[in-house]
Amino acid sequence: HLDPDILSRMSTLELQARRVVDGYLAGMHRSPRHGFSVEFAQHRDYVLGDDIRHVDWKVYGRTERFFLKQYELETNLVLWLLVDGSDSMRYASGSVMKYDYAATAAASLAYLAHRQSDSFGLATFDAKIQAQLRPSSQSSHLNDMLRILSNGPSSEKSRIGGVLHEAADRFVRRGIVVVFSDLFDEPAEILSGMRHLRHCRHEVVVFHVLDPAEIEFPFREATLFRGLEQLPDLLTDPLGVRESYLSEFGKYLEEIEQGCRTQNIEYVRMNTERDLGEALAEYLGRRAGS
């Protein structure tokens, strides 16, 4: 028997995921395959009556001829969802906690994969992987995933670099690993873990989940900053440290993003202030080439 609070959170998470996915599919004209497990195969000549959404406009711009992009299913690929449940993911300057945003995004992609009969697996982590579901496409599997995500974040520190190495060792089936995290760890360690996943021939997508206050540092008056992940509280004048904070934070973001690009890893920055359905639709549309 599940705790009533867990059941309530599961129901809310499922409804949010359905809303995001149904809105996305409607925006993409309900194409039967707009998920992850498709791979470009070849071009072919356009024939009258073909769906013009599959025209490769870049090729048309070079050749002034119409060609369609054809895709083939990669049935040996699975979608691995790796969700950060460490203490720092509790943070929220507004109404949306970083963990809830990440969990809803992961549930939405799982629901989309399930709708398309694709297999998906889940791992949640803080300093190590705490829960893991093997890949499946069954409805019961989706419910098991929602139950795990509904447990919420822990009070433990994160160790993302080590977790990515652990995931590379555990995820034996080649797939697409989607990481949802605020990436609060040493960039060199994070990128080393991602390199391990790439070495195992996984495709890696990083959703960098950040609160708008972390990005903009809008504080003006003396503020007591509560320490997360076992760090002490700090009372300070934010105006006196804002410039240096933004400079260091900008360097950190640039190092992470550039490191991902160097390893051919998709990097997607997500602001919890933005509508999740809109953010995912933009990314998935870009991935589908539409």
Give a quick rundown of the structure.
This protein is of the alpha/beta class and 290 residues long. 44% of the residues lie in helices and 22% in strands. It is globular and about 70 Å long.
User: What's the shape?
Assistant: globular
Secondary structure: helix percent: 40-55%
The chain-level structural class is alpha/beta
Rg over C-alpha atoms, rounded to the nearest angstrom: 20 Å
| Beta-strand percent range | 15-25%
Quaternary class:
single chain
Low-confidence stretches: 28-34
What is the tally of helical segments?
9
Count every beta strand, where a strand is a DSSP E run of 2 or more residues: 10
Biggest pleated-sheet summary: 6 strands, mixed
The strands making up the biggest β-sheet line up spatially as 5-4-3-6-7-10
| Mean pLDDT across residues | 85
The span between the termini is: 45 Å
User: H/E order of the elements?
Assistant: HEHEEHEEHHEHEHEEHEH
Helix-strand layout with pairing:
Layout: H1 4-27, E1 38-45, H2 57-63, E2 67-73, E3 78-84, H3 98-115, E4 120-125, E5 129-136, H4 139-149, H5 160-170, E6 175-181, H6 187-199, E7 203-210, H7 212-216, E8 223-225, E9 234-236, H8 238-262, E10 266-271, H9 276-288
Parallel strand pairs: 3-4, 3-6, 6-7, 7-10
Antiparallel strand pairs: 1-2, 4-5, 8-9
